[in-house]
Amino acid sequence: MTPSYPPQSRRDAEIDGLVDVLACATGGHNGVYVSAPITTGRRYAQWSARAGPRPGVEATEIENEHRNSVIEPNLSVIRPFVDRLRPKLKRTVIDPTVLKDRKGWNQDDYRQFWARVIEKLAVEVIFMNEWQYSEGCTYEFLTACKCGASTLHQDLSPLRPQVAISMIQQALSEIGHLPSGSFLRGVLADLKNLNEYRTCAPRS
Description:
Helix 5 packs parallel to helix 7 and helix 6 runs antiparallel to helix 7 (180-197). Helices cover 55% and strands 9% of the residues. By secondary structure, the chain is an alpha/beta fold. It is built from 7 helices and 4 strands. It has one domain (12-197): 3-Layer(aba) Sandwich (Rossmann fold).
């Protein structure tokens, strides 16, 4: 299914409740959010290209392959990074990989939830390598820019909007033909429009 852009959710009340609970741990706008590909990203693009369309294949088999080829390898990179990061920072590190699957939620629900977390709780967002290939991560970058959270590379150096735009454009040159390309193009257009009028200034 082609991902929708912008993502829409009908679970606003549930999302707001979860964000309020998380705010109890972070103390409000004091968190550091780690943005990294989980279900999509470059690994997903490579796996999709290898697998190709397979009519008649059971959905459970495809889900298992997706988990083994994309999700688990992504998690194996994210979690050690977060573990190394936490002792270095004085702020609460928000790791989206810890959230268990929510019954009935789709990708739009998760994207809206994490966008709300960034808006309300994050003063900084760290983007792990290959974030530009991920639908969720690119949307999180746009969200961070809109709300004024600082945006950083994985090495904690500043990630500027113009650099991010170039990175997404490069990713699209590689994976733009895939269904996720339409989502990335939507983010890119909004990011370009936003960048014409404002910069991603850090929150005070």
